[in-house]
Amino acid sequence: MPMLQDPSVKYQRFAPINLPQRTWPSKVLDKTPRWLSTDLRDGNQSLPDPMSVEEKKEYFHRLIDIGFKEIEVAFPAASQPDFDFTRYAIEHAPADVSIQVLSPCREELIARTVESLRGAKRATIHIYLATSACFREVVFGMTKEEALAKAVKCTELVRKLTKDDPSQQGTDWDFEFSPETFSDTDLDYAIEVCEAVTNAWNPSVEKPIILNLPATVEMATPNVYADQIEYFSTHVANRDKICISLHPHNDRGCAVAAAELGQMAGADRIEGCLFGNGERTGNVDLVTLALNLYTQGVSPKLDFSDINSVVQIVEKCNKIPVHQRAPYGGSLVVCAFSGSHQDAIKKGFNLYSKEAAAGKKPVWKLPYLPLDPEDIGRTYEAIIRVNSQSGKGGSAWVILRNLELDLPRGLQVAFSKVVQDKAEVKGQELTNNELCDLFKQEYYIDYEDEETNYPFKLVDYSISTPEKGLKQVDAELEVDGKVVKISGKGNGQLSAFNEAIRTHLNSDIEVKHYHEHSLGLDSKSRAATYIEVTLNGGKVSRWGVGIHADVSQASFLSLISILNGLKGNGEI
Ligand SMILES: CC(=O)SCCNC(=O)CCNC(=O)[C@H](O)C(C)(C)COP(=O)(O)OP(=O)(O)OC[C@H]1O[C@@H](n2cnc3c(N)ncnc32)[C@H](O)[C@@H]1OP(=O)(O)O
Ligand SMILES: CC(C)C(=O)C(=O)O
């Protein structure tokens, strides 16, 4: 069947909310909401292969380590393993963590659900009942009045079995009610049901009822959800005795936006899952919400400082990979392959590190990186990766991070051509090791003083001063296995050595640029030198690199590096 030419014959636009005095658009997110993780309930119920008890335990402890204080652990009436896991959770939860469980509005299931929590220090019973016309009519065949009466009856039952039961006084009880598919429910009716449920529970300012307003199915743009939340929050009675919770699903891909705008519209609490697992397109992603807050300077009070290990546990237990582009946690989200991005990031890092080294506390303002990857335990090494879309800055970054060589701009340009050719031939990303090996090969570097078979080798040399202002270098080179003696004079050591080579090769080789810096800070530090020469009447230009504990020797080695390159290309 083709898609419809006119989809309006089948699909209706969601009716907007009439809220001309809305205030949420001018609010900002400046406080941390109460978080509820429903990974082990809504997340788990949506998995093709639900978590084993062992996996649930591992996940549960990780949620506690991250800092969740409210965790929905199961639907205990659904199965014996869910019941048993609830028992495990209440036995192992720290005193400040509330264990939440879910039950439908069915009396026999509520009784079993309450039973699963017996002896808990802190517990939240969560019941739900569909209030939207579609669900009431299609799923339950209930009128508005019948649904309201059922919600009240079940709330009264929960109350009788929990906070009103003398044998249950050892538990600090909370109660949550969800008018299911709130996002598609007539707002005044949702308020009517929630007010009746609130009266049945009888909350206080100190111990508010949790009214959860789920976008069970995301029906419209996030501003519409925000209007619904503001309308509810400003029209419901006893607002000070109510904690408004949001439970956004991601059917239209806007759950994060809906949760954020919903908080601006008055919500106090957010329910969701790590990396957005959950029914269909998932629940709202709590990692994104938390780190979005963090990058606005507000502590989320959830700790993702080792995000890679969180990804690992989520992937292992859900048996679903976290997408490579998932905000914050995806393996590619702090990587740049393209040249202009790499260049900007490299410049940003340089400036940031300079300011930090100068003792300033710089504000994080890096091109393309909204969050310092180090804050979530991601290494800088992974940020810049090189393929055929990359430019000089990317390769230079990799060489700097891995070999500590801070290449001068001209050498960056020269090496990036070599990298480009290699990347095009490979047709894939070059790994850091491949890139470093390519650099060492291209510039014939004895990086670790390894035994090498390069055609030119510096065997020995001596430097003398035959007269004031003049240097003489006498050197022994090994050229294709044979030792040759060369000698030259100049106004410096490098020009003397260059003169010796010019004479030996009968070449017009001329040093154009020279750069040096030290490698390492301790007594074993070495010098890195970079030389650009021209030859053949200035028509050919080449870069060479030399590394040695002695800076003069390092500079001679950069010339030797150039000779090896010329020889390798058959140019001498
Ligand atoms: C939006 C959400 O995520 S809600 C949570 C959903 N999670 C789950 O369903 C996971 C656990 N569920 C289960 O194990 C089972 O569905 C059980 C134990 C709850 C019920 O199983 P069964 O009795 O076999 O019912 P079944 O699953 O086929 O159908 C659901 C029944 O509950 C009713 N129901 C659905 N939601 C609710 C509710 N909130 N309150 C009361 N009854 C409800 C349906 O109308 C249907 O009733 P019917 O059989 O009279 O038509
Ligand atoms: C039980 C409720 C909160 C739910 O999971 C939903 O509406 O999606």
TrEMBL record:
<dbReference type="GO" id="GO:0009098">
    <property type="term" value="P:L-leucine biosynthetic process"/>
</dbReference>
<dbReference type="GO" id="GO:0003852">
    <property type="term" value="F:2-isopropylmalate synthase activity"/>
</dbReference>
<dbReference type="GO" id="GO:0005739">
    <property type="term" value="C:mitochondrion"/>
</dbReference>
<dbReference type="InterPro" id="IPR005668">
    <property type="entry name" value="IPM_Synthase"/>
</dbReference>
<dbReference type="InterPro" id="IPR013785">
    <property type="entry name" value="Aldolase_TIM"/>
</dbReference>
<dbReference type="Pfam" id="PF08502">
    <property type="entry name" value="LeuA_dimer"/>
</dbReference>
<comment type="pathway">
    <text>Amino-acid biosynthesis; L-leucine biosynthesis; L-leucine from 3-methyl-2-oxobutanoate: step 1/4.</text>
</comment>
<keyword id="KW-0100">Branched-chain amino acid biosynthesis</keyword>
<dbReference type="Pfam" id="PF22615">
    <property type="entry name" value="IPMS_D2"/>
</dbReference>
<feature type="domain" description="Pyruvate carboxyltransferase">
    <location>
        <begin position="33"/>
        <end position="308"/>
    </location>
</feature>
<comment type="similarity">
    <text>Belongs to the alpha-IPM synthase/homocitrate synthase family. LeuA type 2 subfamily.</text>
</comment>
<keyword id="KW-0432">Leucine biosynthesis</keyword>
<dbReference type="GO" id="GO:0046872">
    <property type="term" value="F:metal ion binding"/>
</dbReference>
<keyword id="KW-0028">Amino-acid biosynthesis</keyword>
<dbReference type="Pfam" id="PF00682">
    <property type="entry name" value="HMGL-like"/>
</dbReference>
<dbReference type="InterPro" id="IPR054692">
    <property type="entry name" value="LeuA-like_post-cat"/>
</dbReference>
<keyword id="KW-0808">Transferase</keyword>
<dbReference type="InterPro" id="IPR002034">
    <property type="entry name" value="AIPM/Hcit_synth_CS"/>
</dbReference>
<dbReference type="InterPro" id="IPR036230">
    <property type="entry name" value="LeuA_allosteric_dom_sf"/>
</dbReference>
<dbReference type="InterPro" id="IPR013709">
    <property type="entry name" value="2-isopropylmalate_synth_dimer"/>
</dbReference>
<keyword id="KW-0479">Metal-binding</keyword>
<dbReference type="InterPro" id="IPR000891">
    <property type="entry name" value="PYR_CT"/>
</dbReference>
<dbReference type="InterPro" id="IPR039371">
    <property type="entry name" value="LeuA_N_DRE-TIM"/>
</dbReference>
<protein>
    <recommendedName>
        <fullName>2-isopropylmalate synthase</fullName>
        <ecNumber>2.3.3.13</ecNumber>
    </recommendedName>
</protein>
